[in-house]
């Protein structure tokens, strides 16, 4: 967690529903954090508005503070915006699949083209051909050839004198003749968007009908990525993203901006200069990274635990009013197990530490497991109304759980006692009045 965020988390207290007032501070921090991560300011603005609407009036789980609740919602929304864990190339069912790499100069098109060719050849038994259509960058053709040689993938090139469009067309014919099933076109980039480049790319697109147009997005990219992505998308209708250089320090918020604009999935992630540094995209991890919350998962998990706790508090209330079922008992066993050993717990309770030593841990543990197995072998109806458990049902359950009928009787005995104890506790908590006598 960034310092600022964790500080805000501590400062915001209060209960009840999320309101403008109790969300504002946290949302301000989230906003700053996203801007720091290079998410475009307009995208941030929309995002915060969206979260506000979504979160307004949401009940804060009683064990969380509103700040934590907001962070959880923000995290989930970023994951949503980043899209699902996708997905490979859009392969044609028959014929040659064509893929076009596009993006600004230096973002990693050529590297990604080779990485993708390598992975689909090795892992998907494809027969890829790489095509050198970047004639602008000095030595671009050589770069691709070197990469191709290192991964045993042929590189098609007609030299830098031939126009890129001609090379692209000839490459397709060549692929047909040679039986290649996937052709990846590495194209030229520019430092900035310009008309000439866009025209060249549009012409290649028209000639080779790409099944995928992959826009490379450098994780280090800044605010202006929105304009770049918008231009590429407007003119070429990209179908996927390759997020490159994620091995660096950058939080990579630019991808959130690009996703917001293009809505197309991140298909690959670049994690280094080497050929094997390619991965699929993990939205959860990326959301953590963008928020600068390495330990957000811990937070969310804690929230989950607390939620479980709330469930058991609710059921405790119900139980104390006399509605105690075997399902509740199962839940109790599970909670106990989660909290660790019974003896260990008792040591923590003043006045009980002596008793703790007297508990036979192993035996208790074994018994709890057995009871659990028995309850799990029951139908829902049986769990909720153990009175219906007659001999034939008990025989079935014993067989199902690998226990004896006497074990089941022992469990029911224990259940009856607990139920009575619960009711008495409830009565005491109600100031001596039985719950069902309340006016
Ligand atoms: P292009 O101009 O878009 O074709 O970009 P290149 O593929 O030539 O890459 C530009 C530079 O970035 C090269 O030095 C690459 O080695 C480097 N590069 C590409 N992808 C990655 C990556 O995922 N991580 C790192 N650290 N460097 C990368
Ligand atoms: Mg290149």
UniProtKB/TrEMBL annotation:
Start and end residues of each SRP54-type proteins GTP-binding domain? 265-278
| E.C. number(s) listed in UniProt | 3.6.5.4
How would you classify this enzyme at the top EC level? hydrolase
Q: Which GO terms describe its cellular component?
A: signal recognition particle
Which one Pfam family would you cite for this protein?
A: SRP54_N
At which positions is GTP bound? 103-110, 186-190, 244-247
For this UniProt record, the keywords arranged alphabetically read as follows: Cytoplasm, GTP-binding, Hydrolase, Nucleotide-binding, Ribonucleoprotein, RNA-binding, Signal recognition particle
Q: Which InterPro entries match?
A: AAA+_ATPase, P-loop_NTPase, Signal_recog_part_SRP54_M_sf, Signal_recog_particl_SRP54_hlx, Signal_recog_particle_SRP54_M, SRP, SRP54, SRP54_GTPase_dom
Location relative to the cell: Cytoplasm
Q: Which Gene3D superfamilies does the entry link to?
A: P-loop containing nucleotide triphosphate hydrolases, Signal recognition particle SRP54, nucleotide-binding domain, Signal recognition particle, SRP54 subunit, M-domain
A single Gene Ontology molecular function, please?
Answer: 7S RNA binding
Primary place of residence?
cytoplasm
- Kindly give the PANTHER family that the UniProt entry links to this protein: SIGNAL RECOGNITION PARTICLE 54K PROTEIN SRP54, SIGNAL RECOGNITION PARTICLE SUBUNIT SRP54
Family note: Belongs to the GTP-binding SRP family. SRP54 subfamily.
Known function? Involved in targeting and insertion of nascent membrane proteins into the cytoplasmic membrane. Binds to the hydrophobic signal sequence of the ribosome-nascent chain (RNC) as it emerges from the ribosomes. The SRP-RNC complex is then targeted to the cytoplasmic membrane where it interacts with the SRP receptor FtsY.
Q: What protein name does the entry list?
A: Signal recognition particle protein
Q: Which organism is it from?
A: Copranaerobaculum intestinale
Organism placement in taxonomy: Bacteria, Bacillati, Bacillota, Erysipelotrichia, Erysipelotrichales
């Amino acid at each position: 967690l960034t310092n600022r965020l964790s500080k805000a988390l501590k400062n915001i207290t209060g209960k009840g529903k999320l309101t403008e007032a109790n969300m504002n501070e946290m949302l301000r921090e989230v906003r700053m954090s996203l801007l720091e991560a290079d998410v475009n300011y307009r995208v941030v603005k929309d995002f915060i508005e969206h979260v506000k609407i979504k979160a307004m009036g949401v009940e804060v789980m009683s064990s969380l503070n509103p700040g934590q609740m907001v962070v959880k919602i923000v995290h989930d929304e970023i994951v949503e915006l980043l899209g699902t864990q996708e997905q490979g190339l859009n392969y044609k069912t028959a014929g040659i699949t064509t893929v076009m790499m596009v993006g600004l100069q230096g973002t990693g098109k050529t590297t990604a083209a080779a990485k993708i060719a390598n992975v689909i050849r090795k892992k998907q038994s494809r027969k890829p051909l790489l095509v050198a259509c970047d004639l602008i960058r000095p030595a671009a053709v050589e770069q691709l050839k070197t990469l191709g040689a290192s991964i045993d993938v042929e590189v098609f090139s007609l030299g830098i004198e031939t126009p890129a469009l001609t090379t692209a067309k000839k490459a397709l014919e060549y692929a047909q003749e040679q039986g290649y099933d996937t052709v990846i076109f590495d194209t030229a980039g520019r430092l900035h968007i310009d008309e000439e480049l866009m025209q060249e790319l549009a012409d290649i697109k028209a000639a080779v009908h790409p099944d995928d147009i992959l826009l490379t997005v450098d994780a280090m990219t800044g605010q202006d990525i929105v304009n770049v992505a918008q231009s590429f998308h407007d003119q070429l209708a990209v179908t996927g993203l390759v997020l490159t250089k994620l091995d660096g320090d950058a939080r990579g918020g630019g991808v959130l901006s690009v996703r917001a604009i293009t809505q197309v999935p991140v298909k690959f992630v670049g994690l280094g200069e080497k050929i094997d540094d390619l991965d699929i995209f993990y939205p959860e991890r990326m959301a953590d990274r963008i928020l600068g919350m390495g330990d957000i998962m811990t937070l969310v998990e804690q929230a989950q635990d607390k939620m479980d706790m709330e469930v058991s508090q609710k059921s405790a209330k119900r139980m104390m009013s006399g509605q105690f079922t075997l399902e509740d008992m199962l839940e109790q066993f599970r909670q106990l197990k989660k909290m660790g050993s019974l003896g260990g717990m008792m040591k923590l309770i003043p006045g009980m530490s002596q008793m703790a030593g007297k508990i036979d841990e192993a035996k208790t543990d074994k018994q709890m497991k057995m009871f659990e197995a028995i309850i799990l072998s029951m139908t829902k109806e049986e769990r909720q109304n153990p009175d219906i458990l007659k001999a034939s049902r008990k025989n079935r359950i014993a067989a199902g759980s690998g226990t004896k009928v006497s074990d089941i009787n022992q469990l029911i005995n224990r259940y009856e006692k607990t139920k009575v104890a619960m009711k008495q506790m409830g009565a005491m908590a109600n100031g001596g009045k039985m719950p069902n006598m309340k006016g």
